[in-house]
Amino acid sequence: MKEYFTIGETARLNNISIQTLRYYDRIGIFKPYYTDQENGYRYYHVKQFFYLDIIKYLKYIRTPLEEIKRFGSYTCTPEDIQHFLEEQESVIVQEMEKLERARQLLHRRRNQLNEQLDICRKKDEGFVYFRYLDEQTILKVETPQVNPHDQSDLYYRKLADVIEKIGDVVDNYYGFIYDFKPYKDSRDIYCNSIYTTVCNEKKIDIGEKNIRLDTIPSGEYVCIAFDWSAKNYDEYYQKLYQYIESHGIQTDGNVYQVSLPIDFNSLREENFLTELRVLKK
């Protein structure tokens, strides 16, 4: 029975490329049984194929090459192998959790973009409209002196920092909450808080006193949307306020402003779609 095989035969019998075998030889993970000194040909013994199967298995479970090299650099007992595989299982579980969070973020972002497209259609009509919103879990920071016209990026970064510390990514959805009143000028508005939505609230550990988790209630909201500008803000807020007052609509006393970026080019001037929401009671 044949015991020694060329690199081409070894590659074909083990469903692996010649280039991969050469690379494994070069970095010391899987070396040929011997190399012909006259012509440089590599030869592998049939008994080595078992170890190649182990390497392929470890690669399949996403073990880094450095770990595979370390694993094969000394004689392992079954206990050593068991401990090694337990470590790899832990790594895989962590990766699965990251992928699940990424899937949730992707799903939420797609829903937000669908919502944004719907708001854009409403904005083009220029009228007050009603829509039902599900309850939202939010992370918010108290901002007693912030006006909707002020730069609020630093407050938003505080929220992003809390979310990123648990391995999640903050999305592009952020808003303000302030009192629903008959403001003569939108520069008289002072926001109670700035918020963003979250999906892994159970894992959030908040260290700062003025940041906390909260919810925006579900229900029917009276809304108006516009392209953000100081002029538009005054005009559309007044239109929304007058509509609610003239129709005798009871509210929870808050305005929930949502801002969504329209342009994702960082070199251009900021361009936001804004929606003002007031919850009917």
From TrEMBL:
Looking up Pfam families in the UniProt record yields: GyrI-like, MerR
Q: Does the keyword Transcription regulation apply?
A: yes
Q: Which UniProt keywords apply?
A: Coiled coil, DNA-binding, Repressor, Transcription, Transcription regulation
From the UniProt record, list the coiled-coil ranges.
85-123
Instruction: Look up keyword Ion transport and say if it applies.
Output: no
InterPro entries attached to this UniProt entry: DNA-bd_dom_put_sf, GyrI-like, MerR-type_HTH_dom, MerR_fam, Reg_factor_effector_dom_sf
Molecular function (GO) terms for this protein are: DNA binding; DNA-binding transcription factor activity
* SMART domains linked to this entry: HTH_MERR (SM00422)
Gene3D superfamilies xref list: 1.10.1660.10, Regulatory factor, effector binding domain
Domain spans labelled HTH merR-type: 4-74
| Record protein name field | BmrR
Q: What is the lineage of its organism?
A: Bacteria, Bacillati, Bacillota, Bacilli, Bacillales
